[in-house]
Automatic annotation (TrEMBL):
It comes from Geotalea uraniireducens (strain Rf4). It comes from the Bacteria. This is Haloacid dehalogenase domain protein hydrolase. The keyword Hydrolase applies. Keywords: Hydrolase. GO terms for molecular function: phosphoglycolate phosphatase activity. GO terms for cellular component: cytosol. SUPFAM superfamilies: HAD-like. GO terms for biological process: DNA repair. The keyword Hydrolase applies.
Length: 227
């Protein structure tokens, strides 16, 4: 795939796993929450994990999946407070800032488009300080639809001006890339190194990158070749 930045006006970027290391989220939901839940309900860690993992899976591809208020009510735990206990794990992936600076230098419209809940957004943007790089920040919770729903992209188009045929989307979710493709977004990039603790695997359906440095052309050029 050849990517020429002259052909792109707008860049939509996911947050967790795409710009930020998903190790934080995986550790939080798969280890930290079960540990706290087990302690509260006097369960073994394995019992807590079995119950919670099943409950988590039941809400996949819905807004509840990332709704901190929903999980606070369901689990009887202060989820935003628990996130602060492990917020030292929140980290920006390598080369993300360099990529955002490249986009700003070339006058691209840059939007952070995420399923993350507003309380998660506030915590992570405060921790990482990447907010000022974006033209705008949109949470799926504002639109009432998750990115897994094709209708999300129509709702997004009603919120921000972008031409799908001149838009690039960076995501660590093949499902979300698929719904965006159905809507007509042309340039679809799968971020395979979504976690620093998981071995990256390229997508079988979409152009894949490990790092955003792969999208930055050599000095003085506007085109990159991706495999």
């Amino acid at each position: 795939m050849k990517l020429n930045w002259n052909d792109i006006d707008t860049v939509l970027l996911d947050m967790d796993g795409t710009l930020l290391d998903r190790h934080f989220d995986d550790h939080f939901w798969l280890e930290h929450v079960p540990k706290r839940y087990a302690a509260k309900h006097r369960l073994s860690l394995d019992e807590a994990k079995s119950f919670l993992y099943s409950h988590f899976r039941s809400q996949e591809n819905t807004l509840n999946w990332t709704d901190l208020d929903y999980w606070t009510e369901q689990l009887g735990l202060d989820i935003p407070l628990l996130k602060q206990e492990v917020d030292h794990l929140i980290a920006v992936h390598p080369f993300v800032v360099e990529f955002l600076l490249y986009l700003k230098r070339h006058n691209k419209q840059i939007y952070l488009v995420t399923n993350a809940h507003s309380k998660t957004l506030a915590l992570k943007l405060n921790k990482t300080r990447i907010g000022p790089y974006f033209t705008g920040i949109i949470s799926a919770h504002e639109l009432g639809l998750p990115k897994e729903d094709v209708a999300f992209w129509t709702a997004l188009h009603n919120r921000i001006p972008y031409r799908p045929e001149r838009t690039l989307l960076g995501e660590d979710s093949e499902t979300n890339l698929s719904t965006a493709q159905c809507y007509g977004i042309k340039y679809l990039i799968y971020v395979s190194r979504f976690s620093s603790t998981v071995k990256p695997e390229a997508s079988g359906s979409y152009t894949s990158i490990h790092y955003f440095s792969q999208l930055i052309p050599p000095e003085g050029e506007l085109e990159v070749t991706l495999t």
